[in-house]
Amino acid sequence: MCLAIPAKIIRINVEQLAEVDILGTSRQVALDLVPQAKVGDFILVHAGYGIEVVSEQYANETLELIREFPELAGEGV
Predict the structure, then answer these.
(1) Half-sphere exposure of 50 (CA within 13 A, CB side)
(2) Which CATH number fits domain 5-74: 2.102.10.10, 2.60.40.1230, 2.30.30.140, 3.40.190.80?
């Protein structure tokens, strides 16, 4: 199963690499698949690539679910 994580674009360099924030951690991702993305946008990140621009609401809802993962694991789910 593949999982894409929402991230907020902090800055973009001239090579179309973006610094993004994912749950408080900074990463660099390629924007080759989402050239329309801009600073402040939320994107889904998979395998080091931005794959889709998403709304802030969708990103926040998804991140909230991800934050619950450790709790679910403890319940034997």
Answers:
(1) 30
(2) 2.30.30.140
Q: Identity (one letter) of the amino acid at 63? A: L
At 68 the pLDDT is 86
- DSSP per residue over 7-69, as a string? EEEEEE-TTSEEEEEETTEEEEEE-TT-TT--TT-EEEEETTEEEEEE-HHHHHHHHHHHHTH
Cβ–Cβ under 8 Å, residues 55 and 44: no
pLDDT above 80 for 1: no
pTM here is 0.84
Q: Could you tell me whether strands 17-22 and 5-12 are parallel, antiparallel, or unpaired per DSSP bridges?
A: antiparallel
Residue 37, pLDDT > 60, answer yes
- pLDDT the model gives residue 70: 73
